[in-house]
Amino acid sequence: MPNAPALQPPARVLLGPGPSNVHPRVLRAMSIPLIGHLDPEYLRIMDETRRLLQFVFQTRNDLTIPVSGTGSAGMEACMVNLLEPGDEAVVCVNGVFGTRMADIVERCGATLVRVEAPWGRVIEPADVTAALGRCRKPKLLGIVHAETSTGAWQPLEEIGRRAHDAGALFVVDTVTSLGGCPVRVDDWGIDACYSGTQKCLSCPPGLSPVTFGPRAMDILRTRKTKVQSWYLDLTMIEKYWGAERVYHHTAPISMNYALYEALRLIEEEGLEARWARHESNHHALKAGLAAIGLGLAAQENHQLWTLNSVRIPDAVDDAGVRTALLSAFNIEIGGGLGPLKGQVWRIGLMGESSTPANVLLVLSALERVLPGCGHAVEPGAAVAAAQRVYAAR
Ligand SMILES: Cc1ncc(COP(=O)(O)O)c(C=O)c1O
User: H/E/C letters for each residue in the chain?
Assistant: First the structure.
């Protein structure tokens, strides 16, 4: 048997649903020497990471930490810590990630009440109220802020108020929104919130920032049963992050270095400026796509800046376009999931990947590739439309 070949992945422009491209400073941070996870210097890095996460989540919550594991670990951490067998939980389902949240709720032994909307549309507050009304004593309401499978951008504040009026905690998935558009945990009354590192925070996948507010902490502290998951038990993990510094599991040191540096980059850019960058690149992309006859699939006025779900015209070869973008231009975009498979492309503009250069690149690449895949376009039309958006801003 020959030895395994050296790693030689190509340099891609990552414009899919995540991961996004990573700043060289973040990659360098991952290669700095390890120290122990109880080293005083590492403890200082942890405290500073918490402060930076509080800043991106816009919260004063003490329990604001990166959970070890990808975004799904954050989702699971919220549910297993807040739910006990027999509880009732309302989950909003309008795409893959609401569906996943509902699955986790059932695995916790809770009674699930679903609120549904068609994929691509947002959840209506009246439907949430009706679902809460079907519960005896709802423990929490879970909802996805940015549904990566459809590109729908869910308004949160009104739904949060309705959850609280019914006595339920408000739990929000911000995996594809945190760092790319406003997320205001304290102002919006979010009780528990999780995200992922590989999207708008522009860090490799592997950590899931999570924050728990006072109401969620009360529920955690007054549980009658042990948290079902040992690894994700925040009652133990908080002792490592708190004054006691009790060992729970070995922290993924290099991943935490990467997150620290990624958060420093966000602090340097400023949250408002970062959100504005994501907004303008989305509008330029949308205008460029429209100029070559491509529309977005998500509900008008509720389209994410960070993930653009593009309707594939009839007779266009879905996989052919994605393969040509990858092989000829080194650009990754995503295909559709579930019922949207073959119906949409997903173009992510997240974190480091959200730049005018990438918008103009993907539009010109599409102009080049589409005619060979069944969709005639006027060369230059998409790029010109995007340029006009930038010029007007
Ligand atoms: C909205 C949303 N929630 C949860 C997840 C799960 O995150 P991960 O794949 O990092 O486990 C994703 C991943 O794409 C997501 O987009």
Answer: CCCCCCCCCCCCEECCCCCCCCCHHHHHHHCCCCCCCCCHHHHHHHHHHHHHHHHHHCCCCCEEEEEECCHHHHHHHHHHHHCCCCCEEEEEECCHHHHHHHHHHHHCCCEEEEEECCCCCCCCHHHHHHHHHCCCCEEEEEEECEECCCCEECCCHHHHHHHHHCCCEEEEECCCCCCCCCCCCCCCCCCEEECCCCCCCCCCCCEEEEEECHHHHHHHHCCCCCCCCCCCCHHHHHHHHCCCCCCCCCCCHHHHHHHHHHHHHHHHHCHHHHHHHHHHHHHHHHHHHHHCCCCECCCCCCECCCEEEEECCCCCCHHHHHHHHHHHHCEECEECCHHHCCCEEEEECCHHHCCHHHHHHHHHHHHHHHHHHCCCCCCCHHHHHHHHHHHHC
Round to the nearest angstrom and report the end-to-end CA distance of the chain.
Answer: 59
pLDDT of residue 213: 98
d(CA 87, CA 223): 11
Between the alpha carbon of residue 190 and those of residues 21, 67, 172, 317, the distances in Å are 29, 18, 7, 42
Quote the ligand 1 centre to 206 CA distance (angstroms): 11
Instruction: Let me know: does 85 contact 225? Beta carbons within 8 Å.
Output: yes
Q: Which of 79, 119, 175 to mutate to test ligand 1, by most ligand atoms within 8 A of the CB atom?
A: 175
- 119 close to ligand 1 (CB < 6 Angstrom): no
Q: Sheet containing 344-348: give its strands across.
A: 307-311, 344-348, 334-335
Q: Kindly give the parts of the chain with pLDDT less than 50.
A: none
Q: Which atom of ligand 1 is nearest to the CA of 146?
A: 1
Residue type, 216: A
Cα distance between residue 344 and residue 69, in whole Å: 28
Look at residue 152 in the predicted model and tell me its pLDDT.
98
Could you tell me which residues are beta bridge partners of residue 170?
141
Give yes or no for residue 298 CB within 6 A of ligand 1: no
pTM check: above 0.85: yes
